[in-house]
Amino acid sequence: MTSYGLKQRLSSVAVYIFLGVMAFLSIFPFLWMIIGATNTTSDIIKGKMSFGEALVVNATTFFTQVDAPLIFWNSAKITIIATVLTLLISSLAGYGFEIFASRFREKLYTLMLLTLMIPFAALMIPLFMLMKQFGLINTHLAVVLPTVASAFIIFYFRQSTKAFPHELRDAARVDGLKEWQIFFLIYMPVMRSTYAAAFIIVFMTAWNSYLWPLIVLQSNDMKTITLVISSLGSAYYPDYGAVMIGTVLATIPTLFVFFAMQRQFVEGMLGSVK
Amino acid sequence: MNRKTVALAFAGASLIAITAAQAAEVTVWCWDPNFNVAIMKEAGEVYAKTHPDFKLNVVDFAKADIERKLQTGLASGVADGMPDIVLIEDYGAQKFLQSFPDSFAPLSDKVDYSGFAPYKVALATLDDKVYSMPFDSGVTGFYYRKDLLSQAGFQPADLQDLTWDKYIEIAKVVEEKTGKKMLAYDPNDAGLTRIIMQSAGGWYFDKDGNLSIEGNVALKAALEVIQKIQTANIFRPAAGWADWVGAFTGGEVASVTTGVWITGTVKSQPEQSGNWGIAPIPKLTIEGATHYSNLGGSSWYVLAGSAAKDEAIDFLNEVYAKDVNFYQKILVDRGAVGSLLAARDGEAYKSTDPFFSNEPIWQTFSDWLSKVPSVNYGTFTNEVDSVVAAHQPELAKGGSVDDVLKAIDEQAQTLVQ
Amino acid sequence: MSAISPRRLKPRFDVNGWLFVGPALALIATFMVFPILHSFWMSFQTGLGVRLSFAGLKNTYRLFNDPLFFTALTNTFIFFLVQVPIMLTLALVTASLLNNPDLKFRGVLRTAIFLPCVTSLVAYSVLFKSMFVANGLINTTLIGLGIVDVGIPWMTDPFWCRTMIIIAITWRWTGYNMIFYLAAMQNIDRSVYEAARIDGVPTWARFLHLTVPMLKPVILFTTVTSTIGTLQLFDEVATITGGGSASGAAGPGNSALTLSLYIYNLTFKFAPNYGYAATVSYVIVFLVAVLSFLQFYAARERKA
């Protein structure tokens, strides 16, 4: 019994060491970013690893060069609209493909997965022409529209739906619930952890998206935070101090979302149904 | 539609009418908020003094971002959504002019180009028409740490007429005496190769724009220098731009050979004031070799589809081709060396700089500027450059330069089409 | 598993099915399929910028005679074969360790490990470059610990350059994949574990014989998406090596040139040849399609 307990303790020490190292390696660059925000550009380039005194200077540079409220509002607007619409439309489709499978839809599904495979760089020019025809150049709608029906998220929801208990649906049908009621009243609450994961991923992707917003957004007042950081970082002598301020600020919303959502991973799915 | 929306729609319509009656706004895309963007805004203010209606809207994007936006927009064949004026790096000039014919407005009818550094005009000329308003120059200099070199026994007078072989010898002495490397060098970047090649009037292409790799004397000589620098181990390896900059601002190396636009960065370390000097870059020992070259630099272009085309051209012409005082201001404020040769007669160009021990460095640079050999950057500089950069690390292993040239030639042939 | 996996295929017209998938399909048709067809048409044209002309199969011919294309193809495969298994195993192991309800500091550890994929690309590239330079943190540490005598040539040797890229991608995306596993683990009935534990089934066996099979749909999902991600690898190679900048190679001897970076270069860095770039894109489509099919097939077979 004692040897079993010792073994147990040793293995749990190993687990903590492993996770601790993983966590340290993961967190290190983030710490470096925060430290960087307090250092001058030349110290940042030298890789200085201690806090400096340039925080106020860096923040002043950042906030005088960047209309921060407007830029963050633009990013927030795009991200929130994109996240809500993507979760709704893509989860409907993922559920639909899995539950109402038919031979024809199965073929469409395969075709849809194929669209994931083409590199975005190859689509930018045709997509830009299309947006032009819709008169959507330099609008936030043009940023959001192509991402809303995400084959990637549909794929994810379909795979996760495979774990959705069949009995629940059958029971709901017996109770006389309509298909849309089953989806909104049963499926959505039950699949909370799936939605939470998708929420984090979609939010993060939308918040950090770069290439497409860059192409369709034309004026300063429409830009997102990612675009602003990119142009700050491209000077002949980039002010990395200001870039770090921007980067830290730009990371906070996603981190906040992660903190808020991770509760959903802890509570099991079955608990929520009872 | 209720009354409120009708009123709004009406207000919107009349707003459009007012805008149309006013002078059109000129939109500019350029990169670097502290350099090009600030300079362009300054130019707008200068022009607005005589043209009160003039409105300039400068939008800043990263350089690579501008190229992406421009290419996507031009490829889609639509004029609106594009700026009126755009900044393009000189190496990419012919690529844009040839890939998107009729997309840029020729300026040669309006602008007198005789006052500009000839190589800047040549690079934006296509079919006898000039398309650019030449802007900042990348005339090169050899920036060195006076303190470190004198510690190694070399005085400024010893450094004025170097060859690359002599440079490498000096480098060895410097390391021996001071423990510092002579330069920071990124083996994955072909910038130094280009500087050396152009200083002897060579490029990846001949005068007609045809690929010229094997049998290119200047390129071969440049690669030989690159090989010696690597095998003599006189460099501190750098990975990317920030690391390269950090090496000389951090005092790790004794010199830097690059374009004049680096001056502001060199001066960003006030504690090194008085310790820096400039000299002409070392030269090759082949025919046509000079001490003068160029790295980077960019020019303004007006889009042919622009609604405010005439205004944009007039604006550029009045400020950038004529206003000598403007060039003094951007030199003092931003350290920008323009390509208008007449600018060097202004006060600022004659001033001395305490950071460089009161040498008249601007006067010196503008002298060198007029002597930079003209070459044809061609349509495919970036293609060949990426191939050359990829092969540079091979040279470090001591392989034959001829073999490397052959390999470069083979890969470049497929890209240049 | 068997209670939920077999899906009855319904051949009859089902209005509900269409209502659920309709909005998504309409959007995908407009914003994906249409541009894809357009770019497919472009792959039969050649020329610089807007000076395109019909070329038939000329682009395909050029492809087979293009040494850089083969360099990019080889590199992409190296990254795919080495990196995807390492990352997914690491993510799966981490997720199952973090899923233990008795573990302390779970929330903190989870968040920490998720952090890398949130970090902005700009900061990420500056940091990785500064850590991996010749006298950077990594080499100093390795020399200090006595693991190596001289610094590793991360930026000048093809092998080490690729290793660096693999470390960078793994660092950035392990936590991301972990999220999918963690979410899926919530759907597993805890009592099964408890029963196995009481029966004395060791941890590793529970992991291999309980966790992995139950997560199969999501493992398939992450495998396919990671395959797509790696075959389209762009960010890391463009920003950490000089591959994305105007002058610069994608690592020594183009050792980090990937297909996506090559497409990007053909479209934006080089004199733009949209037709040829589109042709190279369809190589990726073809490869991913074949690989995904194999992955689906492998996953399906084991079900029986």
TrEMBL record, chain A:
GO cellular component, one term: plasma membrane
Membrane topology type: Multi-pass membrane protein
Keyword Cell wall biogenesis/degradation: no
Name of the protein this chain belongs to: Lactose ABC transporter permease
Domain of life: Bacteria
Domain ABC transmembrane type-1: 72-261
Biological process terms in GO annotation: transmembrane transport
Family (UniProt): Belongs to the binding-protein-dependent transport system permease family.
Cellular compartments annotated: Cell membrane
Organism: Pleomorphomonas carboxyditropha
Major site of localization recorded for this protein: membrane
Keywords for this protein: Cell membrane, Membrane, Transmembrane, Transmembrane helix, Transport
Lineage: Bacteria, Pseudomonadati, Pseudomonadota, Alphaproteobacteria, Hyphomicrobiales
TM region(s), chain numbering: 13-35, 78-97, 109-131, 137-157, 182-207, 240-261
InterPro entries referenced in this protein's UniProt entry, alphabetically: MetI-like, MetI-like_sf
Xref: Gene3D superfamilies: MetI-like
From TrEMBL, chain B:
Signal peptide span: 1-23
Keywords, alphabetical: Periplasm, Signal
Keyword Signal assigned: yes
Location(s), subcellular: Periplasm
Keyword NAD: no
Pfam families: SBP_bac_8 (PF13416)
InterPro entries (alphabetical): Bact_solute-bd_prot1 (IPR050490), SBP (IPR006059)
Entry's Gene Ontology cellular component terms: periplasmic space
Family the UniProt entry places it in: Belongs to the bacterial solute-binding protein 1 family.
Protein name in the entry: ABC transporter substrate-binding protein
Automatic annotation (TrEMBL), chain C:
Membrane topology of the entry: Multi-pass membrane protein
Listed transmembrane segments: 20-41, 68-95, 107-126, 132-152, 164-184, 274-298
Record's keyword annotation contains Zinc-finger: no
Keyword terms of this UniProt record: Cell membrane, Membrane, Transmembrane, Transmembrane helix, Transport
Any single GO BP term: transmembrane transport
Location of this chain's protein in the cell: Cell membrane
GO cellular component labels: plasma membrane
Domain ABC transmembrane type-1: 73-295
Record-linked InterPro entries: ABC_transporter_permease, MetI-like, MetI-like_sf
Domain of life where this protein originates: Bacteria
Family as reported in the entry's similarity comment: Belongs to the binding-protein-dependent transport system permease family.
Protein name: Lactose ABC transporter permease
Source organism (scientific name): Pleomorphomonas carboxyditropha
